[in-house]
Backbone:
């Protein structure tokens, strides 16, 4: 956990997100923990650090990864259901295919806005 926290801190500093994403108190908690603690024994500190790490991960995630996780997976599931209903038995694995979801997310991102409402399943 501490190694990951230090790595996330370096990446966030490089991208200029360290001060934008975290409050001064959260930054202080991270800095002090990295410097002074070898193992985390306190549950409260662990909860605080888990929240901070989640914030940093979300902020450092690429837009394509976010779109893949949200829209790409939905579109892959919808297409798989349709293809399976047409008799294509291999379509059940499509929602699990990360490359296919990424392809659909990038295609969705490059689609004009007036067509997007027809794409996203409800």
Residues:
């Amino acid at each position: 956990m501490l190694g990951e926290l230090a790595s996330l801190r370096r990446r966030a500093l490089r991208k200029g997100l360290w001060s934008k994403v975290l409050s001064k108190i959260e930054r202080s908690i991270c800095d002090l923990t990295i410097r002074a603690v070898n193992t985390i024994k306190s549950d409260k500190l662990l909860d605080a650090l888990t929240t901070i790490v989640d914030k940093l991960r979300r902020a450092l995630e690429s837009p394509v990864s976010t779109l893949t996780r949200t829209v790409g997976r939905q579109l892959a599931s919808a297409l798989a259901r349709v293809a399976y209903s047409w008799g294509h038995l291999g379509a059940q694995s499509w929602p699990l295919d990360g490359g296919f979801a990424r392809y659909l997310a990038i295609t969705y991102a490059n689609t004009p806005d007036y067509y997007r409402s027809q794409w996203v399943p409800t």
